[in-house]
Amino acid sequence: MLDPTREVRQLKAGMFKVWTVWIAMFLTLVLSLIFVFLLGRNVEQLYHLPTVRRITLILYGVAVVGLILAYFIRKYMLHRASSKPLPEETANTSGQISLYIARYKPAVVVSLAIAESIAAFGLTIFFMEGNLTVFLLFLAIALVGLFLYRPKFEEVEKLVVSIKQKSDT
After folding, report:
1. CA-CA distance, 109 to 105, in Å (whole number)?
2. Which whole-number Å values give the CA distances from 70 to 98, 131, 156, in the listed order?
3. How far apart are CA 59 and CA 147, in angstroms?
4. How far apart are CA 76 and CA 67, in angstroms?
């Protein structure tokens, strides 16, 4: 288990960096929403409507599959991160906590990037068709993904415990 004082404080400090990434991605979605509302209905439809609708349906499928895949990719990345023990030379150093966060962060960033890319699909359709409703739907899906795959301290704790168990054996 974790030392309830020092280790937890260090992990929470490391999680601040991961939350900063999450906040930046969230703000990117907010900025895209503001941008679309400022642009309003001034987007000219340049593409053949049936083609755009077909592309929209394909991107809906890609968005749903992407959210599901992001879950499994994150789970796989966390499993791989927890299955490797710490290198011997760093096993008893004070900078060890940052190594746990360094193993956790890629899984979070990848899953958040997949979720955020869904909003980019909606933005693309908005520029092709000028349909605000479709953009808002893709944005909502992206926000759900950002919420589902937000950084979780419990995941880091499990990762630390698992790595410590692997390092002890």
Report:
1. 6
2. 24, 27, 18
3. 20
4. 14
41: tokens are 């209905």
- Write out the two tokens for 151: 């950084």
**DSSP single-letter state for residue 80:** H
- Here the tokens at position 42 are 């001034």
pTM attached to this predicted model: 0.83
The C-alpha angle with vertex 146 and arms to 72 and 60, in degrees rounded to 5, equals 75
Alpha carbon separation from 119 to 15, 46, 69, 104 (Å, rounded): 25, 21, 16, 24
- Helix (H) and strand (E) counts for the chain? 5, 0
Report CA 113 to chain centroid distance, whole Å: 5
Q: pLDDT for 25-66, tens place per residue?
A: 999 999 999 988 887 766 666 667 788 889 999 999 999 999
